[in-house]
Design goal:
With 278 residues, this protein is α/β, with parallel strands linked by helices. Helices cover 39% and strands 14% of the residues. The protein binds NADP nicotinamide-adenine-dinucleotide phosphate.
Length: 278
Amino acid sequence: MQQSVILPSGEQVPALGQGTWHMGERSSERTDEVAALKAGLDEGLSLIDTAEMYGDGGAERVVAQAIAGRRAEVFLISKVFPWNASQAGVISACERSLSRLGTDHLDLYLLHWRGGEPLANTVAGFQDLQRAGKIRYWGVSNLDADDIRALWQAPGGQDCATNQLLYHLNERGIEWNIQPLLRERGIPVMAYCPLGQGNLLQDPRLAGFAERYGMTAAQAALAWLLDQKDVIVIPKTRSPRRVAENRGALEVSFTDQQRAELNELFPPPQGPRPLAIV
Ligand code: NAP
């Protein structure tokens, strides 16, 4: 599998990173969460996705602990709530995130989903943050094809670095109209819930495939996404053992026959569907 994905700027980022949703919610789990993220960094999974939403800022604090002393190794992503996404609001929200994360800049800052704020205002806030050196790139999440077209109409809207979307073997709707639109501009998809929040791993179709080919279900699910060259994948786990297992997806290489088999088991969309989100 390819180890990295190219952003529209030409910069390469790790294709396999780490998610953090539900981290920072319970102090009893903090040690495991920090250990898992550190184990991921040791394995080269140095792209970390978090958000002001997760654990009400708690996940960003967990990330701060995990990356302390290692900031330069990390491609750090956070997200702003849509109700904080006015031009001024985005700046204040980012400053709060930076303070919780114990860093002076984000590598990528995403609009978590589209709310009532005109996209042009959010982009203007992102541009202010870029000029101030507080973020390097900006992007979006949960934007459907019409939203993306609207974004591209906004001044500077074409500088979007990624769209973070729900995408896994059993949820392939974005392939119909969103992914092709992004591909036209060389914008990678960042696949969230790549394991279907763990539920996909219980699917007998996937379990059977994984067993036939000597990999785990998680590795098969992640490898299918990583096989696509322009998809960044951010599974979440608070187990260092599972981090190593998930990292193993980078060692998988599929034959055309295996790809065809997965397409048969998990068919691509045959028409447009409303954007799926969690
Ligand atoms: P996910 O990564 O698909 O699945 C996470 C679940 O799978 C956890 O319950 C985890 O349990 C389990 N798991 C992980 N590796 C495993 C393995 N090898 N074997 C068995 N179980 C395993 O779901 P997600 O966390 O919802 O999505 C990933 C990341 O995407 C999030 O953490 C977040 O950063 C981002 N996200 C973004 C949005 C958005 O709106 N932009 C929405 C959802 C998620 P343990 O932790 O107990 O191992």
